[in-house]
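=== RUN LOG ===
request id: a7f3
mode: sequence -> structure
chains: 1
length: 191
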Amino acid sequence: MDRGQYGYLKRHKKKVIISIISTGIIIVAGVALSLFLFGTTKTVMIIVPILTALPFSKQVVALILCGKFHWLTEEEYKRTETEIPEDIRRDLLYDVSISRYEGMIYFPVVLVRDGRMIFYYNGSFNSKIKDKNELKKAIDKVFEQTPKPYLAVVTTDLEDFIKKACGVRNVHEDFVNKDGRVKKKILELGL
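=== RESULT ===
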C-alpha cells in the first residue's frame, strides 16, 4: 500500500507497533541474556541492545505522531468514493500528514486538481492552530515556494469537501504536470 491511499496510516501504525514490539524484545532479551550468562551488563554482548535502542525510540516517536491522526471512517470513505466522480477521485490523496517546524497537521483526504488543493480537516483546533484561517495560513506557508502558488481551501465538514471537490471539473492543461508534482510534494512532507 502506497502513501496517499486510503488506509495507509492505519497500516503504517500497525507496522510501527510490530517494530516496537520486536525491537523491545531484542533489547530485553539482550540485557537479560547478558545478566544471566555473565551476571553483569558490562560485556560486549550489551552492544546489540544498545544499538537496537535507537530504532526502538524512533518507532515510539512515530507511534506518538500517528496517534493524533483521525482517519476517515469506512462510511466516510465510501461517501467519497460514491459521491465524487471517478475522474476527480483519481486526484484524491488519503491519510495525508504535513510536517512543519511547529508540528504535524493531519488530513484524512486532500484533492489536488487544477491549481487547487482542497483539504478536509477533521481534527481539533488548539493553541497553535486556533481556527480554519490559521490552518489555511499554515498550509500556505508550507507551499509558498511552489511556483505559481496553488489555492489552498480548508474544509472541516465532509459534505462541504465533497461539494467543493465536485466543483473542480475540468483540468486546465497548464496544471496537469504541476498537479502531479504538488501531490508528490504533499506525500513527501509527512509520515
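=== NOTES ===
Residues 86 and 188 are 25 Å apart (CA to CA).
The longest strand covers residues 103-113.
=== END ===
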